[in-house]
Structure formats: structure tokens, C-alpha cells
Specification:
alpha/beta, Rossmann fold, two-stranded antiparallel sheet, 13 helices, 17% strand
């Protein structure tokens, strides 16, 4: 998996998916409680967030799931005040950012950085939510979903959806901007939906892969890593998270992670009504 270190390592990036690759769960569902307390979501949505988390861990999120997520984002966020949602993140982040981090993932990130590689966390979650986690892990870059804002409120439009081909596009843009060589760079993900990102680099790796991705990785001879025994992220970063709060992050980013959380909690209501799930 690892080539001998060369001077070219300085032009190498390592792209890491977040959910189920770096952490054992969803990076956004932890905010359902604070959102409920602030009145942004209802009690049913709060209960369904736990169900969505279970579904994510057991069966993952395929392209159909994520497309429904995108549509729900547009419906749910329209009219939300950026300042209020930004306030939820500012107040709640130190207490609720308790997803589980795989020690193997943290060690792998440290190994890349020791070689001079630059690490980028690439996630469909909101950029502002991924950013503190990425910074705590020493990642140089964070790529995530961005929402459109007009007159201080969310329009319901998505400026950039960092999912599927979008992740590969974001990775290539980052590489072009910073001079990274994609053919010598690395990518790690658990999901078949991230196949475009994995195919965009010279060193793809499947981490805790779903069935489809595991099959492809086996066929193509890609490394497959299975991470176990996660530990609380808060236990690793401790008080450092307070220094990493996105106080200077543009407000345009502030709600995308929370919106994604709400979507995750509600989307299965629609999925369970679909013909595919009705047959089960």
C-alpha cells in the first residue's frame, strides 16, 4: 500500500470520507437534541434521528438514499435564519460532538502527515460541521456541502452538494489549486457512492466497505481495511475542540451540517413508503 518515500510526497494528498470511515456513525445526527431544544425540529424528527443512525450503521446510504436526502434538504431549510442555526452550532458543538473515531483512522492520518502528505476530509455533511473534526485530526483541508443564502436566510438551494461525483470534482479542484498529483494521492471511503473519488486517485482504499464496494475492491485488488473498537472523539481532542469552533466561518456555511442531520432523520419516512421497501 505504501511506496517508498520520495520528494514527490510533498505533492500528495490523502482524501478521507468522514462517516463510517473516520468515525463510527453520523457526524450530524448528534445535533438533533440541540435543534429540538431550539424549536427547529419536532419531537418526531428527534426520535427518527436515532432510527436514521441505526439504518446508516447497518445498511449504509446508497445513491437513492442520498438523493432523497438532497431533496429533503431543499424542503426543510427554506426560510431558516442563518444566524439562529449558526448559534446552535456555536453553543452545542463542544458538548454534542461525540461521534466515535476509529483509532486506526487517526493513526493512518498521522502516518500520512508524517510523510508530508496533506489530508483532506471530504463529506456530504456541512462544511462547518466537518471542519472542527478535520482540524482536530490535523487535516489541512475540509470539503463539504454548501447551502445558498439570501438576505440572511436559507433559500432551499444547494450551492454545492459534496456527494458522489461531487466529491471527486471537489478533490480534483483542490488538487489543481494546491498542486497535488492525483495519480500519487490516496482516498479512503466505506461507500460505493464514493467510487468516483476512489477512482480519481492512484491509491484507493476501501474502509469498512459496504457489500458493493467490497466486491469492487476485491476485483480490482484495492486494499480493504476494517476498523474496530472506536473511541469517543471528545476523549481524543478534549479541550482542543473549543479552540477549533468555527467562529470565523462564513455564515453561509453554518446550517448545512444540521440540515443534513434533519434530512437523515426524516428521509426514511419517505423510503419506508416506497415500493422497494414495501416489498420487504
Amino acid at each position: 500500500m505504501w511506496d517508498n518515500p520520495t520528494d514527490r510526497d510533498r505533492a500528495v494528498a490523502a482524501f478521507f470520507d468522514l462517516d463510517k470511515t473516520i468515525i463510527a456513525g453520523s457526524s450530524t445526527l448528534a445535533f438533533s437534541g440541540p435543534m429540538r431544544a431550539r424549536g427547529l425540529i419536532g419531537r418526531r424528527a428527534l426520535l427518527r434521528s436515532g432510527y436514521a443512525q441505526m439504518l446508516l450503521m447497518v445498511s449504509g446510504a446508497d445513491a437513492r438514499f442520498m438523493e432523497l436526502m438532497r431533496k429533503r434538504i431543499s424542503a426543510l431549510c427554506t426560510g431558516w435564519e442563518v444566524a439562529e442555526v449558526h448559534s446552535v452550532i456555536q453553543e452545542a458543538l463542544p458538548e454534542v460532538i461525540t461521534p466515535l473515531i476509529y483509532p486506526e483512522a487517526a493513526a493512518l492520518i498521522d502516518k500520512h502527515r508524517a510523510r508530508g502528505h496533506h489530508v483532506a476530509v471530504v463529506s456530504a455533511s456541512g462544511e462547518e460541521l466537518v471542519s472542527p473534526v478535520a482540524a482536530a485530526l490535523g487535516a489541512e483541508h475540509c470539503l463539504g456541502t454548501q447551502m445558498a443564502v439570501l438576505d440572511g436566510r436559507y433559500t432551499g438551494e444547494i450551492d454545492f452538494y459534496c456527494f458522489g461525483m461531487g466529491k471527486a470534482t471537489a478533490a480534483r479542484r483542490l488538487a489543481a489549486e494546491h498542486g497535488y498529483q492525483m495519480n500519487t494521492s490516496y482516498a479512503y471511503s466505506d461507500s460505493i457512492t464514493d467510487l468516483p473519488l476512489l477512482e480519481a486517485v492512484g491509491h484507493p482504499c476501501a474502509v469498512n466497505p459496504d457489500r458493493e464496494l467490497r466486491e469492487i475492491a476485491t476485483q480490482r485488488g484495492w486494499p480493504v481495511l476494517d476498523f474496530v473498537a472506536p473511541i469517543p472523539l471528545r476523549a481524543r481532542i478534549g479541550a482542543r475542540i473549543y479552540a477549533l469552533l468555527p467562529t470565523s466561518t462564513p455564515a453561509v456555511w453554518s446550517a448545512s451540517g444540521l440540515i443534513t442531520m434533519v434530512l437523515m432523520s426524516l428521509v426514511w419516512r419517505g423510503l419506508r413508503r416506497s415500493p422497494r421497501h414495501a416489498r420487504r
